[in-house]
Amino acid sequence: MTQQVTIAPEIKAPEVKGVPETVTAAFDEFMEAFEAFKEVNDTRLGEIEKKLTADVVTRDKMDRINRAMDDQKKVLDQLVLKKARPPLGGGGSARGELSPEAIEHKAAFDAYIRRGDEAGLRELEAKAFSGTTGADGGYIVPPETDIEIGRRVSVVSPMRALSSVRTVSSAVLKKPFATSGLSTGWVAETAARPQTSTPQLAELSFPTMELYAMPAATQALLDDAAVDIEAWIAGEVDIVFAEQEGDAFIRGDGVNKPKGFLSYTTVADSAWSWGNLGYIATGNAAAFKATSPSDNLVDLVYALKAGHRQNGTFMLNRKTQGEVRKFKDADGNYLWRPPVSANQPASLMGYPVAEAEEMPDIGAGSLAVAFGDFRSGYLVVDRAGVRILRDPYSAKPYVLFYTTKRVGGGVQNFEAIKVLKFAVS
Question: Is the pLDDT of residue 379 over 90?
């Protein structure tokens, strides 16, 4: 007797196209890939339901589409970032209304960068009583350039964009907090007010560390009056600053760099105490739960108090996001949803998703998913002023610009961030 074999309808992977030139085209291609992903994943789930396993061809096709979606999202992010940058040349910040002091600073800075003439900057910083001026320490960039560098870094770095940012003029920010909260109570209008107990105070310290980049330019570029040299410098350092900061804010050890939130001690959320981050275990040594894996995400969300939960954001890398894209609710709806527009994040269970490649992959004991109110939970501390030292000697015929800023960071509210631990308990 011949056994009849049913062949599933062919589902084509998204067509490989050239690199899109516009944000709209890239977003359309990303959405097409998501529709193909849903179709293949539905087929995979149907095969599992009928045969308790998915066909190898279906799994391979879904993995290819998943990778294609990640690649298209990278292209989309790069186009959005490029669109956010101001044009290189044509005056840049000089087009705005600047004070006479700012115009003088800008002109002196331009002369220093293009020709190495530091007399104007030395005089300006001497007037400002700066104790660290001079060729050995470099010179402070104009405020407009400082702001532009910070804005660009925020676009690239998810942690900086999500966290609270405080600018200070000293090397360390110290923040006191009450470990037991303030004493309160109800009293009648004419009743005596009992004396409250003295609050116990502790202190969080956020030292700033030096971060540097060293872009290089030819003398021909510097001699070109059409090039906005401040915008060029901001464009050169934004990516490298953002990459270094993003890594430090997530997994930095606090030694000569900010302390990342994953470097703090983690404890089971049921045993949480101040100074530690609470985690929810998946119940599986190196994966989500075998059945109803989305329950792990639900438990993680509701580990946060309501006040923080309403401002919550998921943080995970692209590989982990590829796994959670497959999750559905009881009604068959996908929990992961694509962004509604090119400059918006994807969502998971209705909460924004921040992609951070510094987050670990899924593995035994890893903390691959974080959920929290990062604006309340993490503090980025910037010391005012970005400094530049011009070096025309070390790499002739190129001119190097040793650019430094001081930045620190750490957890400021240990209740506001929870992590998912891939472990049995």
Answer: yes
